Amino acid sequence: MALEKPGFLTKERIVARPGFNRWLAPPAALAIHLCIGMAYGFSVFWLPLSKAIGIKEAIQCGPEVGFLQELTVTHCDWKISTLGWMYTLFFVFLGSSAALWGGWLEKAGPRKAGVVSAFCWCGGMLFSALGIYLHQFWMLLLGSGVIGGIGLGLGYISPVSTLLKWFPDRRGMATGMAIMGFGGGAMIGSPLAAELIKFFATDADVGVMPTLVVLASVYFVFMMAGALSYRVPAANWRPLHWQPSNAIKTNKMITHSHVHVKDVFKIKQFWLLWGVLCMNVSAGIGIIGMSSPMLQEVFGGRLIGIDMPYSALDKEQLAAIAAVAAGFTALLSLFNIGGRFFWASLSDKLGRKTTYMVFFILGSLLYLSIPESANSGKILFFVGAFCIILSMYGGGFSTVPAYLADLFGTEMVGAIHGRLLTAWATAGILGPVIVNYMREYQLAIGIPREQIYNQTMMVLAGMLMVGLLCNLLIRPVADKWFMDDDKLAEERSLVLENTNATGEDKVSPGALPVRILTVLLAWSAVLLPLAWGIYKTLLSVTKFFS
Q1: Measured between alpha carbons, how far is 529 from 187 in angstroms, rounded to an integer?
Q2: Would you give the DSSP letter of residue 504?
Q3: CB environment 317-331: b (16+ within 10 A), e (fewer)
Q4: CB of 406 within 8 A of CB of 352?
Q5: Are 57 and 51 in contact (CB under 8 A)?
Q6: DSSP character for 204?
Q7: Is the dihedral of CA 67, 73, 76, 78 positive or negative?
Q8: How far apart are CA 322 and CA 318, in angstroms?
Q9: How far apart are CA 405 and CA 416, in angstroms?
C-alpha cells in the first residue's frame, strides 16, 4: 500500500533539500517577528481610542461605570488605564501559549506554527477592529489580547529550534537575529500606525479601525511568506567542517545530548534559568514603561536649559520636555534592539553563563550609579546607564534560547523555551508593579519628584543580584535526564531520515549566482522595513540631542 503523502504544512514537507542555504532561515524568522513585535507599539492606539466616541475630547464615563461595565458600554469612551489591559494580556498569553503548545510546535514544525500564528495575530487585529466599530471593549481584549496573544506566543518560539539547528556553530547569533526582529517590530509598526491613523482620521472617526485592518492585511502577507519559507535541516545535518565535539571540549556547559520537554520541570537548572530570565526582564521591563516620565520628573527643566523642578514648569515647558523624553524613549528602543543581536552574538565567544554574569554585575552597578547621576545633574551619564541597561535587557531575551540549547540540547529547545517564557509573563507583572507602586508610595510620603526613583534603583539592583546568584548556581545537566538513542530516534520520527546530510552541499558554479540573489532578496525584504523603522526612530532621537 502506498504511503500517504505528507500534508503541505507538516514538518516532513519542509525538510531542506540538498543545497539549501541556511542563511535563508533567519529572514523567514524575521518576517514573523517584525510583525508580532508590534505588540510593543500598541500604545500608539491608546490616546485616539480614548476619544473614539468624543473624537476631539473624550466623553468620560460616570462613576457608576466600573471596569466590567466598560467591557460593553457604548455611550462613553474607554480610559487609557483600561486600554492598557490589552498590553498586559499580550504578554500573559504569549508566555502561557508558548508553554502550552511548545511541545506541539516541535512535532508540527515551524511552518504550521507560523501559519497558525499569522491567523491568530492578524485575525485578532481584525476582530479588534470590529470591536472598535461596535465600541465593545471585550472584543478588543478577546481579539488582540487573547487570540493575538496566542499568536504572539506561537510566532515568538516558532523559529527558535529551527535556527539553533541551522546554526549549531553560532547559536547566540542565530537567536539574536530572530529575536532582534521582535524588538524592532514596534520601530516599524508604531510610526506606520501613526501615519495611517493620521491618514484615516476624519471628523467622525479617529482612524484606528481602518488602521488595524490595513496592518492586519500587511502583516498577514509578511507572516505567511515567512512561515511558508521555513525549512528544517535533516536529522544529522551539520555545517561543513564543524565538529560538535570541538564545542563540547572548549565549553563544559554545552551538551551533545537532548532532554525531553516533559522532564524539564524536574530539573533544577531549568528553574535556576527561569529565575535568571525573570530577574533580568523584571528589572528592565519596569523601566521601559516609566522611561519617559522618569526622565522628566528627575531632571525637570534642566532638559531644556531651565533650572526648575518638574512641578514648577508651565504647560508649554512641560510639552517641551515631553518631546525630549520621547527622544530618550526612542534611544532606549535602539539599544534594546541592538543589544539583542550584539550580546547574543558575543555570548558565542564569552559563553552564556559569563554573558549573564556581565548583565547582572554591570547592570547592578549602573542602577546604583543612577541616583548620583540624577542628583548631580549628569544627564548624559544617566541616559548612558539606561541605554546599556536596556541593551542587556534585550540581550537577555536573545541569549536565553542559546543557553537552553547548551544545557538541554537542541532537539526540543523550542518547547523548553516556551515553558521558560512563563518567566517573562511573571516579569511582565512583577517589574511594572514594583516600579509603579514604589513611585506612588514615594510621592505619597512627600519625597520630591526628582528623588522618587532612588530607592527603586536599589531594589532593581537587588533583583539583579538574585539573578546573579541563580546564574552562578547553574551547572551542566546530569546525564540521567538526557534521552537515550532509542527515545531520541522516536522523537525524530517525523523527520525524513533519508535526507540525512553531514555537511553543506557543494553548489555548481552555475547555481551559485541564483542562490546569492535569492538570499539577498530575502534579506532585503526584511531589512528594508527595519531600516525605515530605525530611520523614523532616529528622527525622534534627534529631539533628545537637540
Answers
A1: 9
A2: P
A3: beebbeebbbbbbbb
A4: yes
A5: yes
A6: T
A7: positive
A8: 6
A9: 9
**Are 452 and 140 a contacting pair, CB within 8 Å?**
no
Contacts of 509 (CB under 8 A, 6+ apart): none
Q: How confident is the model at residue 501 (pLDDT cuts 50, 70, 90)?
A: very low
**Exposure b/e, 239-258, CB count within 10 A at least 16 = b:** eeeeeeeebeeeeebbbeeb
pTM: 0.86
Q: CB neighbours of 517 closer than 8 A, spacing ≥ 6?
A: none
* Amino acid 217: pLDDT: 97
Secondary structure element (H or E) that encloses residue 513, with its range:
helix 512-545
For the beta carbon of residue 305, count every other beta carbon within 10 angstroms: 7
Other CB atoms closer than 10 Å to residue 541's CB: what's the count? 19
pLDDT, tens digit, for every residue of 392-447? 999 999 999 999 999 999 888 889 999 999 998 888 788 877 877 787 788 788 88
Query: In the chain, count of helices (H) and strands (E)?
Result: 20, 0
Residue-wise pLDDT for 227-260, tens only, equals: 999 999 887 788 877 776 655 555 678 888 889 9
Which structural domains are found in the chain, ordered by start? 14-55+67-239+508-546 (1.20.1250.20), 246-495 (1.20.1250.20)
- At 546, list the grid cell: 537637540
Which residues, including other chains, have CB under 8 Å from residue 103's CB and lie 6 or more apart? 261, 262, 412, 415, 418
Q: Is the dihedral of CA 185, 435, 341, 90 positive or negative?
A: negative
| 3-state SS track over 258-283 | CECHHHHHHCHHHHHHHHHHHHHHHH
Residue 107 in contact with residue 494, Cβ under 8 Å?
Answer: yes
Strand partners for 232: 15
In DSSP terms, 482 is beta-bridged to 259
Adjacent-strand bridge partners of 202: 205
Nearest to 488 by CA among 501, 499, 497: 497
Burial class of residue 295, CB neighbours in 10 A (0-12, 13-18, 19+): buried
Query: How many residues comprise the chain?
Result: 546
* Separation CA 399–CA 396 (nearest Å): 5
* End-to-end C-alpha distance for the chain, whole angstroms: 74
How far is 244 from 168, CA to CA, in rounded Å? 8
